[in-house]
Amino acid sequence: MRPPPRGLDDEAPRSPGRVTTSAAGAPRESVIHTLTAVTDLVAQGSGPWINFDVGLFLDRFWANTINGLSYGSIYALVALGYTLVYGVLQLINFAHSEIFVIGVFGVYFTFLALGFQPGQTPNVPLAGIIANLVLAGAVGMILAGVAAVILERVAYRPLRKRNAPRLAFLITAIGASFVIQQVFRITRGSNPEGTIRLLPPEPLFRIFGAPVTNLQLIIIVAALALFVVADSFVNRTRLGRGVRAVAQDPATATLMGVNRERVIMITFLLGGLLAGAAALFYLMTIPQGAVFNGGFLLGIKAFAAAVLGGIGNLRGALLGGLILGIAENYGQSLFGGDWRDVVAFVLLVGVLMFRPTGILGESLGKARV
Amino acid sequence: MTATTETERAPSSSGGRFGELSRWWNARSRPQQWGLLVPVAAIIYLLPVLNPPIITTEPATSFPIALFNAAVFALIAIGLNVVIGQAGLLDLGYVGFFAIGAYSAAVLSSPDSELGVRFPWLVIVPIAMVITMISGVILGTPTLRLRGDYLAIVTLGFGEIVRLLADNIDPLRGNRGFQDIARPGGTYPDGSPIFTQNDAQGFYWLAVTIVIIVLFLMGNLERSRVGRAWIAVREDEDAAELTGVPTYKFKIWAFAIGAAVGGLSGTLFAAQVGFVNNQRFDVTTSILYLAAVVLGGQGNKVGVVVGAFLVSYIPDRFQFEPEYRFLVFGLALIILMIFRPQGILGMRQHLLTYGRQAYQKLFGAGTGVAPTSLTPSSRPAGEPAEAVPDDRSGSRPQGGGE
Amino acid sequence: MVRRRLAAAGALVAAAALVLSGCANQSGSGPAQTSAAPAPAQPNNAVLPAGDGQGRCAPGTSIAYVGTLAGQNAALGQAIANATELAVNQHNQANQGCQVTLVKADSGGTPDTAVGPTQAVINNQAVLGIVGLPFSGESKAVGPALNAAGLVNITPSATNPGLTANGWTNFFRGLGNDAVQGPAAAKWMQGKFNPQSICVIKDDSDYGIGLAQAVTQALGPQVAACQGDVKTNQKEFSATVGQVQQANPQAIFYAGYYTEASPLIQQLRDAGVQTPFVAPDGVKDEQFVVNAAGSANGSFLTCPCVPQEGFTAFTQAYQQAYNTPPQTYSAEAYDAATILLQGIDKGANSRPALLNFVKSYNGQGLTKKFQWQPNGELTDTPVYVYRVDGDKIVTDSPITG
């Protein structure tokens, strides 16, 4: 169904400038309008490079929703890490995606250490599988948590001590991100690690005809549970109060006896732990995911999710992650698989036009107490 | 201060003492400055011919091409510096403009293009700049009402969208790309063309010349009303608005001018490589541009040229050890940033048209640079509590002295 | 505090899990060995890098690998670089009188980054020939410079048909291009499945796009009405899976590389789609089978390369040297390097001499017979179908023209 190489002369004047028009100019309308505007512009005459497959969209609606929720949960857990750090330090922790990758490798190495071999689906009783998964998840979480704390020590604290401008943090984060990626690439090669899958997906039941697999159920429930834990940690514990205090007003918090450095450490640790958990779920969904640059796109999406929901706001990160996961899935059914990321970014831009601080608004400090 | 271009480059490697150097430099009269600049510029032009040992990237990668890439990078950094350093707008999608420039050149001259035209390079350049400028306005119009990090993520999204559209839309050929893009004409006295792919010397000289011209123009712009408005927006957007600066308009100007320079660099890049596809226009590249600006010292156009040179040059210099070059690069970023958090040259603040004279009157003859702790508030004024509240409140009003 | 508590919990869980299942895992693992079909022997007249051991050449004579070594898609580049290095090492060991140096240049895999290192290789007068560049995009970018320098280059993996249409006299392709493999694959699918509909899914690489276009054209728009797109490095394919479920085709053709093919086929099979899966040489790699964790079983792979099961000597040497089995295009790179080394052994001591040697070369390699048309395409490129059987890739049948 490819167009003939010539004969698109009516399309010809669409130089890159026009393309940008569609991408950036459209988002003045509502989100849906944005999407249709882009589509209309790009898909004139049932455009050859973009589909508008309403049939597939409706057909896959519920399957996409469930799948989007499950994938969105992973986004949400990673987004929590961005949001926590942003809430406390007003800093985009660009190396957070690499913390996630450390978690992924932590989980993977635990699988290897437990005796699983790449390539097979092992024959272990369910209880054993769950125990293995929990163990691997715990290792991944601890590794990612510790890595996040070390990252803070090495890349951010020296800058804080020197009162560096904010963008300097961004650059060390990028440097750290390069270093972590390259260490994995040099030691483990650039191929993904061999697949180890403990739990193949089995449909458990159906919602509106769409199957829900055991994996999806586990991931959604576990992610929600982790979110509740993180949320109540921040909102209900003494340490969490410290975190909120620093987020609101670091100077006053320090005067009131809050140890700012410790709060920062705890924030990074918490973000790392959640990223580690996300790593486990990611590797369960996509067993081919253990690769040195595997965190990059996911990290950007998770960051987008955090902004979408309102950066600095825990509930916003959850909401943003889920919405992004679902919207992406709808979008790729509607427009075709290669439009997935475009949909995600256009959605983000569109939402920010109307709610400039994200859906739920920002501020960890002002989070409901 | 346009002309300060190259002098400060050499000492930048020796570390420290930038403040004194800058002060000394600013104390010179214009003719003296020119007298020093001309030989420095000559050396820079002659670099590919001199091919100095230790500095050269050969034999691992061609030194003229590495230099050309560094010069293009410098041009990009100057453009991005208008957006980030001058107007204080955090743009993570600058690569989008670079891409639009490169694609304009490709679509307007490659035989693979469905337009079927072959414009000469010199015709393409203004067209591409206008196209990118328009796209800058189009991106800016809705998004510049956002502040701080929201702007960052939206621009990042824009950069990705441009890249993905180049991938998804068939006439833009995605990974297949456009071959045989027009190069500038011109021949050496012996008849051989100056601008070829395998001999980047001509391209390097062209790029350096463009960099110098753009530096001049930017210097004049900085000292103009526009430049003062940008600095006002950067320092305190609300206060600027209150004092009658149409901030929104000037922010869009910053975006458009930055975009045009990005487009110019894109056409230069496309002409030298002669081939454009969707690779290279990713977020990582965009972030490297940002790194060049921050590393060099945002707001200081000489600084960003130095920063761009380093960001482009370090991976090339370590090309002989390809396995480890990005590791080295990452470490270098961290270390440089920790030791020079304000950037290699730090920010200069030309708040006044006759900044130098004013500084001299205020602080005595020796002063001329911004304090190190003074930060380019990419954080706009309206945001909640400072991340590091105790660090800069006292230093902001001053104009000079490291 | 949190950390301590969590660490304690982690330790507890660890202990419990180890007791529960550690032993069970150990005993249940270990690759299940399926008996592979009897392998055809390596073509016994294949030219190997060692040659006759009588090679003579000037000290310092070099060949180069130009291609990606770090960064994106580096795995493919590494495999090619390793195979080239292996060939050079074997050659040097056998030919004391001719010690060839291998120059490795990292092109970064993208057009813009490839220009500098390639130019450096051109400037290095000791380099007489190049194995590379691996990707079509970068090949297009540096082609004019290499051609101007008259430096022979044999690409082991760039399959864009347009590369040989530029009039470059120094460019040789060590494998069949998309225009050869695509129609052959389509023809084979038509014979095998007698399809009403086939889903053609492509990635966004030059390779994937070109191949999908060739296959779609050969199948006709009716049969190949179902077209899917995926992106390089994509890992989650629910949309594509949904598309296939809705179209319910007789076969799926995936035009792309193994990195995306493994999760794709796994997610297809997990969703209950048992449609036959056909993929090209970019997927024909042990990694595909391992990473699909059983889901790849029964897939068909087309490849313009002769069966490789017989290359035991090469496979073993490669495994021994790099601690990993050879990957897609490793054998092609080995052959390409061998041809250059042969030329040097036979006295080609300058770039024009080596270029002429390659131009008129006619000999058997591991992967196929090498003889080039004037434009740089091979005269004869057999396409074979392979099949994944258990955890092995075995030969299915040749596609006869």
From TrEMBL, chain B:
Pfam families noted in UniProt: BPD_transp_2 (PF02653)
Record keywords, A-Z: Cell membrane, Membrane, Transmembrane, Transmembrane helix
Membrane-topology descriptor: Multi-pass membrane protein
Residue ranges of the TM segments: 34-51, 63-84, 91-109, 121-141, 202-221, 252-275, 287-314, 326-345
InterPro entries: ABC_transp_permease (IPR001851), LivM-like (IPR043428)
Chief place where the protein resides: membrane
Keyword Transmembrane helix: yes
UniProt region (Disordered), positions on chain: 370-402
Tagged with keyword DNA damage: no
Cellular compartment(s): Cell membrane
Protein name: Branched-chain amino acid ABC transporter permease
Organism listed in the record: Actinomycetospora termitidis
TrEMBL record, chain C:
Cell membrane listed as a keyword: no
Keyword presence, Signal: yes
Span list, region Disordered: 29-51
UniProt KW keywords: Signal
SUPFAM superfamilies with a match to the protein in the record: Periplasmic binding protein-like I
Pfam families: Peripla_BP_6
Protein name: Branched-chain amino acid ABC transporter substrate-binding protein
Residue ranges of every copy of the Leucine-binding protein domain listed in the record: 62-390
Entry similarity comment: Belongs to the leucine-binding protein family.
PANTHER family given in the database record: AMINO ACID BINDING PROTEIN (PTHR47151:SF2), LEU/ILE/VAL-BINDING ABC TRANSPORTER SUBUNIT (PTHR47151)
Signal sequence coordinates: 1-26
Entry superkingdom: Bacteria
Compositional bias of kind Low complexity: 29-46
